[in-house]
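> example.struct
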């Protein structure tokens, strides 16, 4: 019986090993004008037929929501207005340095764990971001990507207040 308890405890520890990872990027206020923050950036991934949105806030916080199986932004916006964003894996931070951007957030991973997911890219203009690299802390591998995110102004932007990023 004691061995079963020890095995169970070790399994729990392994399954949650990424969950308490701290973001490696430090949140800092975004005071620049290279990117717009009065709406969201969106991307469509044709290989999976999925859309995603990313809000960037002046306080350096980001809110990402993916998995929309639709491509009409008005329909996505209707869902955003009704959504609850209390999930840790939605929140992150971003840093802009000149024309480069780094974005880091928690992401769901195997075993329902939460690991770090970091993207790097460059700012094409104030309404277009081109991400070219991503990294998942669980695999400790960096991958080349080609993701272009476009801006859309949106008046019903969710509040950036959350319990995960201070």
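> example.seq
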């Amino acid at each position: 019986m004691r061995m079963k308890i020890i095995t169970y405890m070790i399994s729990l520890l392994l399954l949650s090993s990424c969950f308490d990872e701290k973001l490696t990027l430090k949140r800092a206020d975004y005071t620049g004008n290279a990117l717009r923050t009065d709406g969201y950036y969106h991307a469509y991934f044709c290989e999976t037929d999925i859309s995603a949105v990313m809000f960037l806030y002046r306080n350096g916080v980001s809110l990402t929501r993916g998995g929309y199986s639709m491509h009409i932004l008005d329909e996505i916006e209707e869902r955003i207005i009704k959504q609850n964003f209390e999930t840790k894996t939605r929140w992150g931070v971003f840093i802009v340095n000149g024309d480069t951007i780094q974005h880091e957030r928690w992401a769901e991973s195997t075993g329902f764990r939460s690991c770090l997911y970091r993207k790097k890219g460059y700012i094409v203009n104030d309404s277009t971001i081109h991400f070219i690299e991503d990294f998942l802390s669980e695999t400790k591998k960096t991958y080349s990507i080609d993701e272009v995110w476009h801006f859309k102004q949106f008046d019903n932007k969710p509040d950036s207040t959350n319990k995960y990023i201070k």
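> remarks
The domain at 18-153 is CATH 2.40.128 (Lipocalin).
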